[in-house]
Write a structure and sequence with these properties.
Chain lengths: 156, 306
């Protein structure tokens, strides 16, 4: 790919966050995890299935004028465990970090067990303990059933 | 060691030492549970028994335990008589009931309901069965019966027979018996085997587990045989059900090669998986098990309420 073509595809951002190395095809899931709906007026660039040296293909998201919090960054690992976060200031990367799943995940995903109390009208927010990271397996704090990667990704 | 104010939701919430502590306390409650000694240990205390699903043994043994200790009982045995029928959430019911009581015992069809109740309530909550989830006091009384009968509850060969796929009791007992270093023999018909994740989970923890569909093959080794009911509705073919039912029926002639000290348990109710001719044999411990349910629950109530 030529340099000109690359720049045409997406330009550098001045300030904000670049989420790189998102598992190919999972950019929309990441947007959903971060609750980025495009309604705030901020410029968001989403690239999907772009060539990657490391993974063959990858997705990239650029969010302008927003610095993601540590908590938000870690939630991304649910859908994209290899993602890297670049914080951009004045067109330069000032911080680079990889995502890391937290010990508990609360309120982002639903328990896959239809018999779980969290899938009723009760005020129980789904909460999971991470039991394994690759593949991602989450144990519901309430019913203790495992929600696996496949069921998890189907929700995004 | 103190358990005052604690919730009993899953056996996983208790350490082996805490379980042993509950058992040692239970020993002292035996004469009280039999009605041979009076107690006013929980006089003035109120237990709320909230049974959103029917139960005979669990509910009555909790109530008996509370009353033997001089306490009082309120509650309901089916949700149709409660405000749940009007659409109230469990969380609101719990917030209300805790204003009337000192401890809540709950049975609910949804998994995790007891955990939610414990989060909402300031007072201790005891899980008396949450759908296909946990029933910790049942598992404790199973272990306690083994300990009373065999004089110990470790290094034993424990056989679980019947429907191991859907039975909540056997899932919890498999984990609990393994925790105390007992060897497990899982005996079930094809299609009703212990869920794979439980077997691999136990194997990964280095626990000794063997599986078979043939009781005579393992019977001579067993110290304990825990029998569960095989339900007709699990089979699409009635002929297959009839075959399995007969193969897994325990009769005196089935036990010819068993150890004379074999202890047979059953969570009850039984249908015909254990012949009534066994009831008067030294093997039959399932009605002792019923009594120990009162003893264990009395110990738990007294420890939680201090």
């Amino acid at each position: 790919m030529g340099k000109v073509e690359k720049e045409l595809r997406v330009s550098k951002i001045k300030t904000g966050t670049v989420i790189d190395h998102i598992t190919s095809g999972k950019a929309l899931a990441v947007l959903r995890i971060l609750n980025i709906t495009g309604q705030t007026g901020a410029i968001i660039s989403v690239l999907m299935n772009v060539p990657s040296k490391m993974h063959g293909k990858k997705d990239v998201i650029k969010v302008e004028n927003r610095k993601l919090t540590e908590e938000e960054v870690n939630k991304i690992a649910l859908a994209a465990p290899d993602a890297t976060i670049n914080i951009i200031k004045n067109f330069k990367v000032t911080e680079k970090k990889s995502v890391k799943l937290p010990e508990f995940i609360e309120g982002i995903i639903k328990c896959s067990n239809p018999g779980c109390i969290t899938n009723t009208s009760e005020p129980a927010i789904p909460r999971f303990r991470i039991v394994s990271k690759t593949p991602v397996n989450l144990r519901c704090v309430y019913c203790e059933r495992i929600t696996g990667e496949k069921e998890l990704l189907a929700q995004f | 060691m103190r358990l005052k104010g604690r919730d009993i939701i899953s056996l996983e919430d208790l350490s082996n030492e805490e379980i042993s502590f509950i058992f040692n306390t239970a020993d002292k409650f035996e004469p009280i549970a039999r009605g041979k000694k009076k107690s006013s240990a929980l006089a003035g205390k109120v237990m709320a028994a909230l049974f959103f699903e029917p139960s005979t043994r669990t509910r009555l043994s909790f109530e008996s335990a509370m009353q033997r200790l001089g306490g009082n009982v309120i509650g309901f045995a089916e949700p149709t008589t409660s405000s749940i029928a009007k659409g109230e959430t469990l969380a609101d019911t719990i917030k209300t009931v805790e204003k009337y009581s000192d401890v809540i015992v709950i049975r609910h069809p949804k998994m995790g309901a007891a955990r939610l109740a414990a989060e909402v309530a300031e007072i201790p909550v005891i899980n008396a069965g949450d759908g296909a989830g946990h029933h910790p006091t049942q598992t404790m009384l199973d272990l306690y019966t083994i300990r009373k009968t065999m004089g110990k509850f470790k290094n034993l060969n424990v056989g679980l027979i019947g429907d191991l796929k859907y039975g909540r009791t056997v899932h919890s007992l498999a984990y609990a018996a393994s925790r105390f270093n007992n060897k497990l023999f899982l005996i079930s018909p094809l299609g009703l085997e212990m869920p794979r994740e439980i077997v691999s989970d136990l194997s990964a923890q280095g626990k000794e587990v063997s599986e078979t569909s043939d009781l005579p093959e393992v019977l001579p080794q067993l110290d304990v045989l825990y029998v569960t009911r095989i339900q007709k509705e699990r089979f699409s073919d009635p002929v297959e059900y009839a075959k399995v039912k007969n193969t897994y029926k325990i009769e005196l002639k089935t036990l010819k090669t068993a150890k004379p000290t074999l202890c047979i348990l059953h969570p009850l109710p039984r249908v015909d998986e254990i012949s009534s001719e066994l009831d008067s044999s030294p093997y039959a411990k399932y009605f002792d098990q019923v009594f120990y349910g009162v003893v264990i629950r009395a110990a738990i109530l007294s420890l939680l309420l201090g």
